[in-house]
Amino acid sequence: MIERYLDKYDARDTVYSYFSSLNNYRIFSSRPESCVSIFEWLDRVRVIDLTEINSDDIKRVVVSLILDVLNKEMLLMGASETDDNGRRQLRAMIVVDEAHQFLQRDFNAMEQILRQGRAFGVGMILSTQEIKDFKTKNNDYS
């Protein structure tokens, strides 16, 4: 996918720069046949270690892309099943460490997952050093 963008557009804009960097880090597979839905991928504990990425902007792009894909698939799948006692099936649990780096950006996907995820069987835990980090210009996530 990234290669297609890089082949098609020769502009040296911000998007090009991010995609080029993502391509260099080899974060995403270049083999479409090995790709699965994010819920299939989250069938067990996965840790995405972004410490080797030098750019905070690139880290934010990676997290944003993952959350956006999760949010889109969550909405497409619809509400999760409930048992006779009203307990909802848990499909995925996402932990975002150093969440202050993302909360201040007010990512739409993150906000939607936090607000609606339970109905779809998706939970999110945000981890940060300061309680004040949960309050942004637009939202109070606490």
Gyration radius over CA: 17 Å
Q: Helices and strands, in N-to-C order?
A: HHHHEHHE
What is the residue-mean pLDDT, rounded to a whole number? 82
Q: Tell me, what's the shape?
A: globular
- Describe the sheet with the most strands: 2 strands, parallel
Structural class: mainly alpha
Q: What is the count of β-strands? A: 2
Distance from N terminus to C terminus (CA atoms, Å) equals 37 Å
Approximate helicity band: 40-55%
Strand content: 5-15%
Concise synopsis of the structure shown:
Helix content is 44%, strand content 7%. With 142 residues, it is mainly α.
What would you say this structure looks like, in words?
- Helix 1 crosses helix 2 and helix 4 packs parallel to helix 6.
- The longest helix is centred in the middle third of the chain and has 22 residues.
- The radius of gyration is 17 Å and the shape is globular.
- It is mainly alpha-helical and about 140 residues long.
- The relative contact order is 0.12.
- Helices cover about 45% and strands about 5% of the residues.
- A two-stranded parallel ribbon has the order 1-2.
